[in-house]
Automatic annotation (TrEMBL):
It is a multi-pass membrane protein. This is Dol-P-Man:Man(5)GlcNAc(2)-PP-Dol alpha-1,3-mannosyltransferase. It comes from the Eukaryota. Dol-P-Man:Man(5)GlcNAc(2)-PP-Dol alpha-1,3-mannosyltransferase that operates in the biosynthetic pathway of dolichol-linked oligosaccharides, the glycan precursors employed in protein asparagine (N)-glycosylation. The assembly of dolichol-linked oligosaccharides begins on the cytosolic side of the endoplasmic reticulum membrane and finishes in its lumen. The sequential addition of sugars to dolichol pyrophosphate produces dolichol-linked oligosaccharides containing fourteen sugars, including two GlcNAcs, nine mannoses and three glucoses. GO terms for cellular component: endoplasmic reticulum membrane. It is found in: Endoplasmic reticulum membrane. The chain crosses the membrane at residues 12-40, 78-95, 107-126, 170-190, 202-220, 226-253, 265-282, 391-412, 459-478, 525-543. Belongs to the glycosyltransferase ALG3 family. It catalyses: an alpha-D-Man-(1->2)-alpha-D-Man-(1->2)-alpha-D-Man-(1->3)-[alpha-D-Man-(1->6)]-beta-D-Man-(1->4)-beta-D-GlcNAc-(1->4)-alpha-D-GlcNAc-diphospho-di-trans,poly-cis-dolichol + a di-trans,poly-cis-dolichyl beta-D-mannosyl phosphate = an alpha-D-Man-(1->2)-alpha-D-Man-(1->2)-alpha-D-Man-(1->3)-[alpha-D-Man-(1->3)-alpha-D-Man-(1->6)]-beta-D-Man-(1->4)-beta-D-GlcNAc-(1->4)-alpha-D-GlcNAc-diphospho-di-trans,poly-cis-dolichol + a di-trans,poly-cis-dolichyl phosphate + H(+). Residues 132-165 are annotated as: Disordered. Keywords: Endoplasmic reticulum, Glycosyltransferase, Membrane, Transferase, Transmembrane, Transmembrane helix.
Amino acid sequence: MLVVQNTSRAASVAAVVSLLYIPFCVVLLVADAALGFIIIRKVSYTEIDWVAYMEQITHVVDNGQRNYTLIEGGTGPIVYPAGHVAIYTLLWALTGKGADLLTAQNIFLYLYFLTHAIVLLGIYRITSIADPDRESDQSSSGNLLRPSTGATREPAKNPLGNAAPNQDDSISAIARALPGYVWAAVLLALSKRLHSIYVLRLFNDCFATFFVVIAVALTQRHKWSLSAIFFSLAVSVKMNALLFLPGAAIIYLQALGIFGAAKRTAVPFILIQILVALPFLVDFSPLTTLFKTHLAVASLPLYELGRAPETPPTVIQTLIPLAAGYLQALGSIPVTQFIAAVSQLRVSPYAFDYLSRAFEFSRVFLYKWTVNWRFVPEDIFLSPGFAKSLLGAHLATIVFGFASHRAGWWLAPLKPAKAVRAAPGGSDYSLAALVRSLFFENSRVVLARRVFDGMDPDYVLSTLVSSNLIGILFARSLHYQFYSWFYWTVPYALYRASKVYSIPVALAIWASQEWAWNTYPSTKISSIVVVNSLALMVLGLWLDGFKKYRAVRNSTGKFKKDA
Protein backbone atom coordinates (compact mmCIF):
# COMPACT_ATOMS: atom_id res chain seq x y z
CA MET A 1 0.00 0.00 0.00
CA LEU A 2 2.83 2.38 0.89
CA VAL A 3 4.52 1.71 -2.44
CA VAL A 4 1.31 2.53 -4.31
CA GLN A 5 0.86 5.73 -2.33
CA ASN A 6 4.45 6.79 -3.00
CA THR A 7 4.11 6.01 -6.70
CA SER A 8 0.86 7.96 -6.91
CA ARG A 9 2.39 10.90 -5.06
CA ALA A 10 5.43 10.83 -7.34
CA ALA A 11 3.22 10.80 -10.44
CA SER A 12 1.15 13.71 -9.12
CA VAL A 13 4.22 15.81 -8.33
CA ALA A 14 5.76 15.04 -11.72
CA ALA A 15 2.54 15.98 -13.53
CA VAL A 16 2.42 19.35 -11.77
CA VAL A 17 6.09 20.05 -12.39
CA SER A 18 5.70 19.12 -16.08
CA LEU A 19 3.04 21.81 -16.43
CA LEU A 20 5.58 24.32 -15.13
CA TYR A 21 8.10 23.54 -17.86
CA ILE A 22 7.37 26.55 -20.08
CA PRO A 23 7.29 29.12 -17.22
CA PHE A 24 10.45 27.55 -15.83
CA CYS A 25 12.24 27.84 -19.19
CA VAL A 26 11.08 31.42 -19.72
CA VAL A 27 12.51 32.43 -16.35
CA LEU A 28 15.72 30.55 -17.14
CA LEU A 29 16.07 32.24 -20.53
CA VAL A 30 15.44 35.72 -19.13
CA ALA A 31 17.95 35.17 -16.34
CA ASP A 32 20.51 33.86 -18.82
CA ALA A 33 19.96 36.85 -21.12
CA ALA A 34 20.45 39.22 -18.18
CA LEU A 35 23.68 37.41 -17.36
CA GLY A 36 24.79 37.89 -20.96
CA PHE A 37 24.21 41.65 -20.79
CA ILE A 38 26.25 41.79 -17.59
CA ILE A 39 29.09 39.82 -19.17
CA ILE A 40 29.21 42.15 -22.18
CA ARG A 41 29.48 45.21 -19.94
CA LYS A 42 31.74 43.82 -17.24
CA VAL A 43 34.08 41.38 -19.01
CA SER A 44 36.61 42.54 -21.58
CA TYR A 45 36.18 41.41 -25.16
CA THR A 46 38.98 39.17 -26.46
CA GLU A 47 39.98 39.50 -30.09
CA ILE A 48 40.58 36.21 -31.87
CA ASP A 49 38.90 35.99 -35.29
CA TRP A 50 36.50 38.94 -35.53
CA VAL A 51 38.99 41.35 -37.13
CA ALA A 52 40.12 38.64 -39.54
CA TYR A 53 36.51 37.98 -40.51
CA MET A 54 35.97 41.68 -41.19
CA GLU A 55 39.18 41.93 -43.24
CA GLN A 56 38.05 38.99 -45.35
CA ILE A 57 34.64 40.56 -45.94
CA THR A 58 36.30 43.83 -46.93
CA HIS A 59 38.11 41.94 -49.69
CA VAL A 60 34.77 40.60 -50.90
CA VAL A 61 32.65 43.75 -50.60
CA ASP A 62 35.00 46.67 -51.15
CA ASN A 63 37.45 44.98 -53.49
CA GLY A 64 34.98 42.70 -55.27
CA GLN A 65 37.25 39.70 -54.76
CA ARG A 66 35.68 36.39 -55.80
CA ASN A 67 38.78 34.20 -55.87
CA TYR A 68 38.62 32.31 -52.57
CA THR A 69 42.37 31.71 -52.55
CA LEU A 70 42.96 35.48 -52.41
CA ILE A 71 40.48 36.29 -49.63
CA GLU A 72 42.57 36.63 -46.49
CA GLY A 73 42.58 38.21 -43.06
CA GLY A 74 45.01 38.64 -40.23
CA THR A 75 44.76 34.98 -39.21
CA GLY A 76 45.11 33.61 -42.73
CA PRO A 77 42.96 32.75 -45.75
CA ILE A 78 39.23 32.18 -45.56
CA VAL A 79 38.35 28.52 -44.98
CA TYR A 80 34.57 28.69 -44.54
CA PRO A 81 31.77 28.25 -47.10
CA ALA A 82 29.76 31.09 -48.61
CA GLY A 83 27.10 31.15 -45.89
CA HIS A 84 29.76 32.49 -43.55
CA VAL A 85 30.54 35.24 -46.04
CA ALA A 86 26.86 36.20 -46.39
CA ILE A 87 26.28 36.40 -42.62
CA TYR A 88 29.43 38.32 -41.84
CA THR A 89 28.80 40.67 -44.75
CA LEU A 90 25.58 41.65 -43.00
CA LEU A 91 27.45 42.02 -39.69
CA TRP A 92 30.11 44.05 -41.51
CA ALA A 93 27.40 46.45 -42.70
CA LEU A 94 25.65 46.64 -39.32
CA THR A 95 28.80 47.29 -37.30
CA GLY A 96 30.59 49.85 -39.47
CA LYS A 97 32.96 47.33 -41.04
CA GLY A 98 33.42 45.65 -37.67
CA ALA A 99 34.29 48.76 -35.68
CA ASP A 100 31.15 48.76 -33.50
CA LEU A 101 31.95 45.84 -31.21
CA LEU A 102 29.11 46.54 -28.78
CA THR A 103 26.51 46.13 -31.53
CA ALA A 104 28.20 42.93 -32.65
CA GLN A 105 28.21 41.55 -29.10
CA ASN A 106 24.54 42.40 -28.65
CA ILE A 107 23.69 40.62 -31.91
CA PHE A 108 25.49 37.52 -30.69
CA LEU A 109 23.67 37.73 -27.37
CA TYR A 110 20.35 37.76 -29.26
CA LEU A 111 21.61 34.77 -31.24
CA TYR A 112 22.49 32.96 -28.00
CA PHE A 113 19.04 33.70 -26.60
CA LEU A 114 17.20 32.56 -29.74
CA THR A 115 19.25 29.38 -30.01
CA HIS A 116 18.56 28.36 -26.43
CA ALA A 117 14.90 29.35 -26.70
CA ILE A 118 14.54 26.97 -29.65
CA VAL A 119 16.37 24.23 -27.74
CA LEU A 120 14.27 24.55 -24.59
CA LEU A 121 10.87 25.42 -26.06
CA GLY A 122 11.10 23.85 -29.50
CA ILE A 123 13.23 20.72 -29.00
CA TYR A 124 13.33 19.64 -25.35
CA ARG A 125 9.70 20.56 -24.66
CA ILE A 126 8.32 17.71 -26.77
CA THR A 127 10.63 15.04 -25.34
CA SER A 128 10.74 13.04 -22.13
CA ILE A 129 13.14 15.56 -20.58
CA ALA A 130 10.12 17.83 -20.09
CA ASP A 131 7.51 15.14 -19.52
CA PRO A 132 8.55 11.77 -18.07
CA ASP A 133 5.00 10.46 -18.66
CA ARG A 134 5.88 10.39 -22.36
CA GLU A 135 8.61 7.85 -21.73
CA SER A 136 6.69 5.74 -19.23
CA ASP A 137 3.69 5.52 -21.57
CA GLN A 138 5.94 4.33 -24.37
CA SER A 139 7.57 1.68 -22.20
CA SER A 140 4.35 0.37 -20.67
CA SER A 141 2.69 0.07 -24.08
CA GLY A 142 5.52 -2.01 -25.52
CA ASN A 143 6.31 0.72 -28.04
CA LEU A 144 9.12 2.83 -26.71
CA LEU A 145 8.67 5.32 -29.52
CA ARG A 146 4.94 5.99 -29.34
CA PRO A 147 4.06 9.55 -28.31
CA SER A 148 2.53 10.15 -24.91
CA THR A 149 -1.22 9.82 -24.63
CA GLY A 150 -1.46 11.44 -21.23
CA ALA A 151 -2.53 8.18 -19.58
CA THR A 152 -2.01 7.60 -15.88
CA ARG A 153 1.52 6.53 -15.17
CA GLU A 154 2.08 2.84 -14.47
CA PRO A 155 4.30 1.76 -11.57
CA ALA A 156 7.94 2.31 -12.39
CA LYS A 157 9.85 -0.37 -14.25
CA ASN A 158 13.56 -0.69 -14.63
CA PRO A 159 15.13 -0.47 -18.12
CA LEU A 160 14.89 -4.25 -18.60
CA GLY A 161 11.12 -4.21 -18.20
CA ASN A 162 10.94 -5.87 -14.78
CA ALA A 163 9.01 -4.48 -11.86
CA ALA A 164 11.06 -2.05 -9.81
CA PRO A 165 11.93 -3.10 -6.24
CA ASN A 166 9.73 -1.79 -3.46
CA GLN A 167 10.68 1.69 -2.32
CA ASP A 168 9.56 3.03 1.03
CA ASP A 169 11.20 6.38 0.59
CA SER A 170 8.62 8.74 -0.92
CA ILE A 171 11.24 11.44 -1.49
CA SER A 172 13.28 9.05 -3.64
CA ALA A 173 10.16 8.07 -5.58
CA ILE A 174 9.32 11.70 -6.27
CA ALA A 175 12.90 12.50 -7.25
CA ARG A 176 12.92 9.66 -9.78
CA ALA A 177 9.62 10.82 -11.25
CA LEU A 178 10.51 14.48 -11.64
CA PRO A 179 11.04 15.69 -15.22
CA GLY A 180 14.64 15.92 -16.38
CA TYR A 181 14.49 19.67 -16.77
CA VAL A 182 14.55 20.12 -13.00
CA TRP A 183 18.28 19.50 -13.23
CA ALA A 184 19.26 18.89 -16.86
CA ALA A 185 17.85 21.97 -18.61
CA VAL A 186 19.49 24.24 -16.05
CA LEU A 187 22.87 23.02 -17.31
CA LEU A 188 22.19 24.80 -20.59
CA ALA A 189 22.69 28.17 -18.90
CA LEU A 190 25.69 27.27 -16.74
CA SER A 191 28.59 27.07 -19.19
CA LYS A 192 31.21 29.77 -18.75
CA ARG A 193 32.96 28.74 -21.97
CA LEU A 194 29.76 28.94 -24.02
CA HIS A 195 28.98 32.49 -22.88
CA SER A 196 32.52 33.43 -23.85
CA ILE A 197 32.22 31.86 -27.30
CA TYR A 198 29.09 33.86 -28.07
CA VAL A 199 29.46 37.32 -26.57
CA LEU A 200 33.22 37.67 -26.02
CA ARG A 201 34.60 35.91 -29.12
CA LEU A 202 31.92 36.31 -31.86
CA PHE A 203 32.72 33.02 -33.62
CA ASN A 204 30.86 31.86 -36.72
CA ASP A 205 30.23 28.48 -35.04
CA CYS A 206 27.32 30.17 -33.27
CA PHE A 207 25.43 30.73 -36.52
CA ALA A 208 26.02 27.16 -37.68
CA THR A 209 24.58 25.94 -34.37
CA PHE A 210 21.57 28.23 -34.77
CA PHE A 211 20.67 26.68 -38.12
CA VAL A 212 21.27 23.18 -36.74
CA VAL A 213 18.85 23.55 -33.83
CA ILE A 214 16.15 24.80 -36.23
CA ALA A 215 16.83 21.78 -38.45
CA VAL A 216 16.57 19.39 -35.50
CA ALA A 217 13.28 20.93 -34.33
CA LEU A 218 11.88 20.58 -37.86
CA THR A 219 13.04 16.97 -38.11
CA GLN A 220 11.24 16.17 -34.85
CA ARG A 221 8.07 17.46 -36.52
CA HIS A 222 8.66 15.42 -39.71
CA LYS A 223 9.27 18.52 -41.85
CA TRP A 224 11.81 16.66 -43.93
CA SER A 225 12.52 19.14 -46.73
CA LEU A 226 12.65 22.15 -44.43
CA SER A 227 14.97 20.35 -42.04
CA ALA A 228 17.30 19.47 -44.93
CA ILE A 229 17.32 23.12 -45.99
CA PHE A 230 18.39 24.29 -42.54
CA PHE A 231 20.99 21.54 -42.21
CA SER A 232 22.35 22.80 -45.53
CA LEU A 233 22.37 26.40 -44.28
CA ALA A 234 24.36 25.23 -41.27
CA VAL A 235 26.88 23.47 -43.52
CA SER A 236 27.12 26.63 -45.63
CA VAL A 237 28.50 28.40 -42.55
CA LYS A 238 30.74 25.65 -41.23
CA MET A 239 31.24 22.02 -42.19
CA ASN A 240 30.85 20.67 -38.66
CA ALA A 241 27.10 20.33 -39.29
CA LEU A 242 27.95 17.36 -41.52
CA LEU A 243 28.44 15.36 -38.31
CA PHE A 244 24.64 15.17 -38.08
CA LEU A 245 24.46 13.62 -41.56
CA PRO A 246 24.68 9.89 -40.62
CA GLY A 247 21.82 10.14 -38.13
CA ALA A 248 19.78 12.40 -40.40
CA ALA A 249 20.31 10.03 -43.34
CA ILE A 250 19.05 7.05 -41.30
CA ILE A 251 15.95 9.04 -40.33
CA TYR A 252 15.26 10.27 -43.86
CA LEU A 253 15.75 6.83 -45.43
CA GLN A 254 13.44 5.12 -42.96
CA ALA A 255 10.78 7.79 -43.38
CA LEU A 256 10.95 8.37 -47.13
CA GLY A 257 12.78 5.50 -48.80
CA ILE A 258 15.76 6.01 -51.06
CA PHE A 259 13.97 7.91 -53.83
CA GLY A 260 11.83 9.99 -51.50
CA ALA A 261 14.87 10.92 -49.43
CA ALA A 262 16.78 11.90 -52.56
CA LYS A 263 13.94 14.07 -53.85
CA ARG A 264 12.79 15.66 -50.60
CA THR A 265 16.06 16.05 -48.68
CA ALA A 266 19.16 15.56 -50.84
CA VAL A 267 17.97 17.84 -53.66
CA PRO A 268 17.01 20.75 -51.35
CA PHE A 269 20.29 20.30 -49.46
CA ILE A 270 22.38 20.57 -52.62
CA LEU A 271 20.31 23.42 -54.08
CA ILE A 272 20.87 25.54 -50.97
CA GLN A 273 24.62 24.96 -51.23
CA ILE A 274 24.56 26.10 -54.85
CA LEU A 275 22.37 29.15 -54.22
CA VAL A 276 24.43 30.37 -51.29
CA ALA A 277 27.67 29.91 -53.22
CA LEU A 278 26.48 31.49 -56.49
CA PRO A 279 28.58 34.67 -56.05
CA PHE A 280 31.69 32.45 -56.13
CA LEU A 281 30.48 29.88 -58.66
CA VAL A 282 29.13 32.26 -61.32
CA ASP A 283 30.75 35.33 -62.85
CA PHE A 284 28.15 38.00 -62.12
CA SER A 285 30.28 40.93 -63.29
CA PRO A 286 27.91 42.00 -66.12
CA LEU A 287 24.97 42.06 -63.72
CA THR A 288 26.84 43.67 -60.82
CA THR A 289 28.18 46.42 -63.05
CA LEU A 290 24.66 47.23 -64.19
CA PHE A 291 23.32 47.07 -60.64
CA LYS A 292 26.05 49.31 -59.20
CA THR A 293 25.37 51.90 -61.87
CA HIS A 294 21.76 52.22 -60.76
CA LEU A 295 22.59 51.83 -57.06
CA ALA A 296 24.88 54.84 -57.23
CA VAL A 297 21.97 57.12 -58.09
CA ALA A 298 19.52 55.58 -55.60
CA SER A 299 18.51 58.02 -52.90
CA LEU A 300 18.29 56.77 -49.30
CA PRO A 301 15.98 59.25 -47.53
CA LEU A 302 14.90 56.74 -44.86
CA TYR A 303 18.34 56.65 -43.28
CA GLU A 304 17.84 59.78 -41.24
CA LEU A 305 14.30 59.08 -40.07
CA GLY A 306 13.71 58.65 -36.37
CA ARG A 307 17.06 59.73 -34.96
CA ALA A 308 18.88 62.88 -34.01
CA PRO A 309 21.96 63.81 -36.08
CA GLU A 310 24.32 63.16 -33.16
CA THR A 311 23.07 59.65 -32.38
CA PRO A 312 24.32 56.53 -34.19
CA PRO A 313 21.77 54.57 -36.24
CA THR A 314 20.18 51.49 -34.76
CA VAL A 315 20.21 48.14 -36.54
CA ILE A 316 16.70 48.76 -37.91
CA GLN A 317 17.61 52.28 -39.02
CA THR A 318 20.53 50.79 -40.92
CA LEU A 319 18.68 47.88 -42.50
CA ILE A 320 15.70 49.91 -43.75
CA PRO A 321 17.70 52.29 -45.96
CA LEU A 322 19.93 49.50 -47.21
CA ALA A 323 16.92 47.47 -48.30
CA ALA A 324 15.19 50.54 -49.72
CA GLY A 325 18.25 51.52 -51.72
CA TYR A 326 18.78 48.08 -53.20
CA LEU A 327 15.11 47.70 -54.09
CA GLN A 328 15.07 51.14 -55.67
CA ALA A 329 18.16 50.33 -57.71
CA LEU A 330 16.76 46.97 -58.80
CA GLY A 331 13.45 48.51 -59.81
CA SER A 332 15.13 51.17 -61.91
CA ILE A 333 16.94 48.70 -64.19
CA PRO A 334 15.27 48.41 -67.63
CA VAL A 335 14.13 44.87 -68.41
CA THR A 336 16.06 44.72 -71.67
CA GLN A 337 19.33 45.70 -69.97
CA PHE A 338 18.70 43.15 -67.22
CA ILE A 339 18.08 40.34 -69.72
CA ALA A 340 21.18 41.30 -71.69
CA ALA A 341 23.31 41.22 -68.54
CA VAL A 342 21.91 37.84 -67.47
CA SER A 343 22.69 36.37 -70.89
CA GLN A 344 26.36 37.23 -70.34
CA LEU A 345 26.67 35.28 -67.08
CA ARG A 346 29.28 32.51 -67.10
CA VAL A 347 30.69 29.94 -64.68
CA SER A 348 33.33 31.66 -62.61
CA PRO A 349 36.94 30.71 -63.36
CA TYR A 350 37.37 30.53 -59.58
CA ALA A 351 34.56 28.03 -58.91
CA PHE A 352 36.97 25.19 -58.19
CA ASP A 353 39.00 27.44 -55.88
CA TYR A 354 35.87 28.05 -53.85
CA LEU A 355 35.00 24.36 -53.56
CA SER A 356 38.53 23.29 -52.67
CA ARG A 357 39.00 26.00 -50.04
CA ALA A 358 35.51 26.08 -48.49
CA PHE A 359 35.25 22.28 -48.25
CA GLU A 360 38.84 21.30 -47.56
CA PHE A 361 38.46 17.93 -45.85
CA SER A 362 42.20 17.29 -45.80
CA ARG A 363 43.03 20.38 -43.76
CA VAL A 364 45.42 19.67 -40.86
CA PHE A 365 44.88 21.61 -37.63
CA LEU A 366 47.68 23.06 -35.54
CA TYR A 367 48.68 20.96 -32.53
CA LYS A 368 48.95 23.99 -30.26
CA TRP A 369 45.20 24.65 -30.48
CA THR A 370 43.90 21.14 -29.93
CA VAL A 371 41.62 20.67 -26.94
CA ASN A 372 41.00 16.94 -27.25
CA TRP A 373 44.27 15.28 -28.33
CA ARG A 374 46.89 17.12 -26.27
CA PHE A 375 47.85 13.82 -24.61
CA VAL A 376 48.83 12.41 -28.03
CA PRO A 377 52.42 13.20 -29.15
CA GLU A 378 52.54 15.89 -31.82
CA ASP A 379 54.13 13.70 -34.48
CA ILE A 380 51.32 11.16 -34.12
CA PHE A 381 48.68 13.92 -34.04
CA LEU A 382 49.91 15.29 -37.37
CA SER A 383 50.31 11.89 -39.05
CA PRO A 384 47.89 10.70 -41.77
CA GLY A 385 47.63 7.37 -39.96
CA PHE A 386 46.12 9.01 -36.89
CA ALA A 387 43.50 10.75 -39.03
CA LYS A 388 42.60 7.50 -40.79
CA SER A 389 42.33 5.67 -37.46
CA LEU A 390 39.91 8.27 -36.14
CA LEU A 391 37.82 8.06 -39.31
CA GLY A 392 37.75 4.28 -39.06
CA ALA A 393 36.70 4.40 -35.41
CA HIS A 394 34.01 6.94 -36.29
CA LEU A 395 32.52 4.75 -39.00
CA ALA A 396 32.82 1.56 -36.94
CA THR A 397 31.02 3.12 -33.98
CA ILE A 398 28.15 4.22 -36.19
CA VAL A 399 27.79 1.00 -38.19
CA PHE A 400 28.41 -1.60 -35.48
CA GLY A 401 27.28 0.37 -32.46
CA PHE A 402 24.32 2.56 -33.35
CA ALA A 403 23.16 1.33 -36.75
CA SER A 404 23.12 -2.36 -35.78
CA HIS A 405 20.28 -4.68 -34.79
CA ARG A 406 21.21 -4.28 -31.13
CA ALA A 407 21.14 -0.49 -31.15
CA GLY A 408 17.89 0.62 -29.61
CA TRP A 409 17.55 4.04 -31.24
CA TRP A 410 18.76 4.49 -34.78
CA LEU A 411 16.82 1.63 -36.38
CA ALA A 412 13.99 1.41 -33.88
CA PRO A 413 11.24 2.32 -36.39
CA LEU A 414 12.12 -0.83 -38.36
CA LYS A 415 11.17 -3.21 -35.57
CA PRO A 416 7.44 -3.60 -36.41
CA ALA A 417 8.03 -3.98 -40.16
CA LYS A 418 7.32 -7.68 -40.70
CA ALA A 419 7.70 -7.28 -44.44
CA VAL A 420 11.32 -6.34 -43.90
CA ARG A 421 11.88 -9.73 -42.29
CA ALA A 422 10.02 -11.35 -45.18
CA ALA A 423 12.41 -9.86 -47.72
CA PRO A 424 15.03 -12.29 -49.10
CA GLY A 425 17.62 -12.93 -46.42
CA GLY A 426 15.61 -10.70 -44.12
CA SER A 427 16.39 -9.81 -40.55
CA ASP A 428 13.97 -7.82 -38.48
CA TYR A 429 16.13 -5.16 -36.92
CA SER A 430 19.38 -4.37 -38.70
CA LEU A 431 21.11 -1.96 -41.03
CA ALA A 432 20.83 -4.62 -43.73
CA ALA A 433 17.07 -4.66 -43.16
CA LEU A 434 16.91 -0.94 -43.82
CA VAL A 435 18.92 -1.31 -47.03
CA ARG A 436 16.70 -4.16 -48.23
CA SER A 437 13.56 -2.24 -47.41
CA LEU A 438 14.63 0.50 -49.81
CA PHE A 439 14.37 -1.89 -52.75
CA PHE A 440 11.37 -4.07 -51.90
CA GLU A 441 8.03 -2.43 -52.51
CA ASN A 442 6.19 -4.55 -49.92
CA SER A 443 8.69 -3.52 -47.27
CA ARG A 444 8.35 0.14 -48.17
CA VAL A 445 4.56 -0.05 -47.85
CA VAL A 446 4.83 -1.48 -44.34
CA LEU A 447 7.46 1.06 -43.37
CA ALA A 448 5.33 3.90 -44.68
CA ARG A 449 2.52 2.84 -42.35
CA ARG A 450 4.59 2.10 -39.27
CA VAL A 451 7.67 4.29 -39.38
CA PHE A 452 5.92 7.49 -38.30
CA ASP A 453 4.69 5.79 -35.14
CA GLY A 454 8.33 5.16 -34.35
CA MET A 455 9.73 8.57 -35.18
CA ASP A 456 8.67 10.49 -32.13
CA PRO A 457 10.67 13.54 -30.93
CA ASP A 458 12.77 11.48 -28.48
CA TYR A 459 13.83 9.07 -31.20
CA VAL A 460 14.76 11.88 -33.60
CA LEU A 461 16.68 13.86 -31.00
CA SER A 462 18.54 10.84 -29.63
CA THR A 463 19.56 9.75 -33.12
CA LEU A 464 20.82 13.19 -34.15
CA VAL A 465 22.51 13.90 -30.81
CA SER A 466 24.36 10.59 -30.85
CA SER A 467 25.39 11.09 -34.48
CA ASN A 468 26.89 14.48 -33.65
CA LEU A 469 28.60 13.34 -30.44
CA ILE A 470 30.18 10.34 -32.16
CA GLY A 471 31.64 12.63 -34.80
CA ILE A 472 32.96 15.03 -32.18
CA LEU A 473 34.44 12.18 -30.12
CA PHE A 474 36.53 11.09 -33.11
CA ALA A 475 37.20 14.57 -34.53
CA ARG A 476 40.73 15.17 -35.82
CA SER A 477 40.96 18.19 -33.53
CA LEU A 478 38.64 20.30 -31.39
CA HIS A 479 39.18 23.99 -30.72
CA TYR A 480 37.59 25.93 -27.89
CA GLN A 481 34.88 27.48 -30.06
CA PHE A 482 33.80 24.01 -31.19
CA TYR A 483 32.17 23.57 -27.79
CA SER A 484 29.16 25.39 -29.24
CA TRP A 485 28.72 22.57 -31.76
CA PHE A 486 27.41 20.19 -29.17
CA TYR A 487 26.92 21.90 -25.81
CA TRP A 488 23.20 22.42 -26.46
CA THR A 489 22.88 18.60 -26.68
CA VAL A 490 24.75 17.90 -23.43
CA PRO A 491 21.76 18.26 -21.06
CA TYR A 492 19.72 15.81 -23.11
CA ALA A 493 22.61 13.36 -23.54
CA LEU A 494 23.29 13.41 -19.80
CA TYR A 495 19.60 13.04 -19.04
CA ARG A 496 19.51 9.87 -21.13
CA ALA A 497 22.83 8.68 -19.69
CA SER A 498 21.55 9.26 -16.15
CA LYS A 499 19.11 6.40 -16.76
CA VAL A 500 22.20 4.20 -16.88
CA TYR A 501 24.75 5.95 -14.66
CA SER A 502 22.56 7.89 -12.15
CA ILE A 503 22.03 11.64 -11.88
CA PRO A 504 25.09 12.32 -9.64
CA VAL A 505 27.37 10.59 -12.16
CA ALA A 506 25.80 12.56 -15.02
CA LEU A 507 26.39 15.82 -13.15
CA ALA A 508 29.98 14.77 -12.46
CA ILE A 509 30.52 14.20 -16.19
CA TRP A 510 29.16 17.68 -16.90
CA ALA A 511 31.37 19.31 -14.24
CA SER A 512 34.48 17.50 -15.49
CA GLN A 513 33.75 18.45 -19.07
CA GLU A 514 33.14 22.09 -18.18
CA TRP A 515 36.41 22.24 -16.22
CA ALA A 516 38.34 20.74 -19.14
CA TRP A 517 36.89 23.15 -21.72
CA ASN A 518 37.73 26.10 -19.47
CA THR A 519 41.34 25.00 -19.00
CA TYR A 520 43.53 27.23 -21.17
CA PRO A 521 45.84 26.25 -22.67
CA SER A 522 44.78 22.64 -22.82
CA THR A 523 46.87 20.07 -20.96
CA LYS A 524 47.25 16.32 -21.18
CA ILE A 525 44.88 15.92 -18.23
CA SER A 526 42.25 18.32 -19.59
CA SER A 527 42.27 16.67 -23.03
CA ILE A 528 41.90 13.22 -21.47
CA VAL A 529 38.89 14.54 -19.56
CA VAL A 530 37.41 16.01 -22.76
CA VAL A 531 37.69 12.72 -24.65
CA ASN A 532 36.44 10.59 -21.76
CA SER A 533 33.48 12.89 -21.08
CA LEU A 534 32.41 12.58 -24.71
CA ALA A 535 32.96 8.82 -24.64
CA LEU A 536 30.84 8.44 -21.49
CA MET A 537 27.99 10.41 -23.06
CA VAL A 538 28.10 8.32 -26.24
CA LEU A 539 28.27 5.11 -24.20
CA GLY A 540 25.39 6.28 -22.01
CA LEU A 541 23.23 6.92 -25.07
CA TRP A 542 24.09 3.50 -26.46
CA LEU A 543 23.38 1.67 -23.20
CA ASP A 544 20.12 3.53 -22.73
CA GLY A 545 18.99 2.60 -26.24
CA PHE A 546 20.16 -1.00 -25.84
CA LYS A 547 18.21 -1.45 -22.62
CA LYS A 548 15.10 0.02 -24.20
CA TYR A 549 15.45 -2.36 -27.12
CA ARG A 550 15.73 -5.26 -24.67
CA ALA A 551 12.71 -3.99 -22.74
CA VAL A 552 10.54 -3.93 -25.86
CA ARG A 553 11.79 -7.32 -26.99
CA ASN A 554 11.14 -8.89 -23.60
CA SER A 555 7.71 -7.30 -23.20
CA THR A 556 6.47 -8.28 -26.66
CA GLY A 557 8.14 -11.67 -26.90
CA LYS A 558 9.37 -10.79 -30.39
CA PHE A 559 12.77 -11.17 -31.99
CA LYS A 560 13.77 -14.12 -29.82
CA LYS A 561 16.39 -15.14 -32.31
CA ASP A 562 18.39 -12.04 -31.41
CA ALA A 563 18.43 -12.87 -27.69
